[in-house]
Structures
1.
Amino acid sequence: MRKGNHTRCSKAVGYRCIIIVLSVFLQTFSGMYAQDVVPEKAKRDHNSGPVYSSTAMEHLMRFISVESPMPASFKDTMENVIIDPERTLDVFWEKLSTMERPVRIVHIGDSHVRGHIFPYKMRKLLEEDFGADAVLDYNVSYHTTGIASETGRSGIVYHILGVNGATCESFNKPERIDEITSLNPDLIIMSFGTNEAHGRNYRSDQHRVQMMNLINELKKGCINAGFLITTPPGAYVKAGRRNRIINVRTPLVVRTEKDFAAENKIAVWDLYDVVGGEKFACKNWTAAGMYQRDKIHFTREGYALQGLLLHEAFIKAYNDYVATKVY
């Protein structure tokens, strides 16, 4: 009886050993044939380029950093961008990205431009971004010219031509056209609308014709120039001898300029709606103390903010173009 029990135990142990050996063998066998063999060194992926850090990529792609200058107190603001769905400014952005020669901007407009603070702020920021070697350094004020002195070297050249009380129609004079075309601009920025909105008999259809006439005349001598229309910042008008109310014609002027730009495939920067539009633009400027007493023109801080806002929208559009390029 004891011998039989011993025999059965020996057989059980033997079976267990056989099962263990078979399990090890099967695991090894499946590992050899069911899995891909991991190479000692991964093969090179010829379809992918090197992976850069975000800082290196920003430098490689020539992005320019820019922060929003919009005051936190401004209500109902919109995204600060240049509206250019047809990408009409791509030719200009390409010139700016390569900077193989002086790249020229001519900023024309009414008293907001003539005061020089708004466009001069823009000029100095762009010189920091793209280089100031193309112009001589001198301070611009209301009592100086806004025309830059060129050196002939590569870099940004930003000319300022503003006239007090100007409209698109009044700017369309042979002497003005000749002065602009003689500067050989790559981009013409047109900042009108405040004075058009002050006309009590303002008509949208007439305004469209006036804008078209001015642009057509400029195109004759500036065949390679791009165009950027900017809307007015908003203003008040007199109501009686002492009171002033928000100019209700400004929204119509802004809508006319934006519709005209869309129909004629011209880029537009809508300053009016960016800072609050019909409901809050004028109230935002007022609450921030950025109007002068006439509530048409702006303080130095107000014009400086406009320059900062234009610069932000400009650089965002430039960065957007750079992002679409393949290097």
2.
Amino acid sequence: MIGADGRERPMVIVRVPATSANVGVGFDCLGIALDLTATFLMTPSERLEVEGCEQRFRGEDNLVWQSYLDACARLGTQARPLHITILSPIPLSGGLGSSSACVIAGIGAAMALSSEGFDRERALELAVAMEGHPDNVAPALLGGLVSSFVDGGTTTSTRMDVAGNLRFVAVAPPYEVRTAEARRVLPTGVSRDIAVWQMGRCVAVVRALELGDAELLGAACHDRLHEPYRAKLIPDYDALREAALEAGACAYMISGSGSTMLAVADGDQTAARVADALRKARPGYWLQVLPANTLGTTVEVH
């Protein structure tokens, strides 16, 4: 790209997949990348310019810009004004990692424009430091199904492939569930029975997703730790869950803290039936049928 001063300037292209945290029973430790990709085009400029998003997000507080500045400071590199173009199909209603995608885009630009270039492990470290948790940023960076834990300042993320037969029908109501409220409604402690319930089913859900075992997924994906409380914040939860399961979905879950929800289906035909049922239940709601994403984040410099 040629700047106004006539000099050629690099363009950084960062592509980040949507993500769904928790995956039912994996509260704050599991996340999955979905094949719905946000693209960010970033070029050094004379001043900050942001396009491709709502007017309210085009100022200095834009999350891509703020994460770029944060990453530059952590990397010890000089931040330069950017022209940022955002091409994102990820809904802003919450639950599919739209904010995490912006955070990773800023980090990707800072690293790509530095002398060291983009490094996935270092990017994960920076993203967790900014977000405070790895449940969305880890699968967004790595792709697939990711289990993460943090020990001190070190994040350990284990990536697994998701079977190709599984489809994730994402439906987003036209309202948000604020993360602070979704946290507030959770109990401060759980019984031993619930802890045992969750642990056994979390392992089974991971295995079911790897194998594409819809029957096992349907048996195991029943959360008792957060969904019973967060479902009350989503007025459409019960009606949409019932419609999805009656149409053949093997599992139904809240994506992250909501308001987006995911129905899991075995194969394209079942996924189409589930999608039709959800459209009939709530016409006009945002809806996509998605496979898992395998690539994670990609960064190119032109």
3.
Amino acid sequence: MKRREVLKSIALSGATFSFADFSKVSTPSAPALSFFSIDDNKIRFSHSKIQKPFSVTFIADTHLYLDDTRGGLYDEYSKRMSKAYNNTKHFKTGRALNPNIAFEETLKIAGENKSTLVALIGDIFSFPSEAAIGWVLEKLRHSAIPYVYTAGNHDWHYEGMEGSSALLRDTWINKRLLSLYQDRNPLMQKLDLYGVQIIVIDNSTYEITDEQLDFFRNCMNSKKPSVLMLHIPLYVPGRSLGFGCGHPDWNAKNDKSYQLERRQPWRENGHTLTTMEFHKMVFNSKNLMGILAGHIHNQSIDIVNGIPQIVAEANAEGGFLQIDFIPTLPASPTL
């Protein structure tokens, strides 16, 4: 299938890890067989219900700071983040880099790998600059690779601007970011690719809405092999408070960054019941092959109830994940 047809029908350095779920292959009623493996930034999901091989390039935390005279009215709110990632170093080679070069190079790699989809999963921008958004749209148009986008906590945040995170997210999605969503719902999206559900949920406020919870529940009810993509990873025991969404101690008392980021502090009484229910539902999902996230800027992997959660290196430093989906051959009958 050509890329334009796909678009119409609608992505541990030096370490490896793999697992196979053989618990359901002994009876004819549950023949699904799945595997997961990782080598460096290359991820492989294999499942018997995947219809044909395809790949996704996953990008998060590019932190583009490009701006022009149109952003002059907002200099007061963009001044810190406009200087945060001007000069970076490649996370592997250490060569000099910047976010624009990193993004272009990653799109080029996605094209060379014949990726079916590019997934832009938050903090592509350091603030909602019209110049940066227009630049990304042009690069995506030129690449001709279908893409999906969701916001991170910086994409819609002008630091010091009054209003709650939910209000500011809604405001700047509609004012600046809307064209990136291609008429999809900005807070929850689902793409069906060759038997796999790519589920994209915006948790950039560190919370989940009732509508998002219902959406995810309905996706899981389909029983299709699925991958969940969100900007902020989900809390895993042993990880720090700031690592993930759904930490039991998340509250205003423990919010150490709100003054630096000039935003309202986290809620005093912690996460909503909806967010905690989402966290529980995700890690108890039977047909979820894995979770892919950004936000932390360092690649990591955690396995919870057999579900791997992989966090990508920051794209500002050249990081990305190349994810291959491969059909699993039916298990051989016992002799």
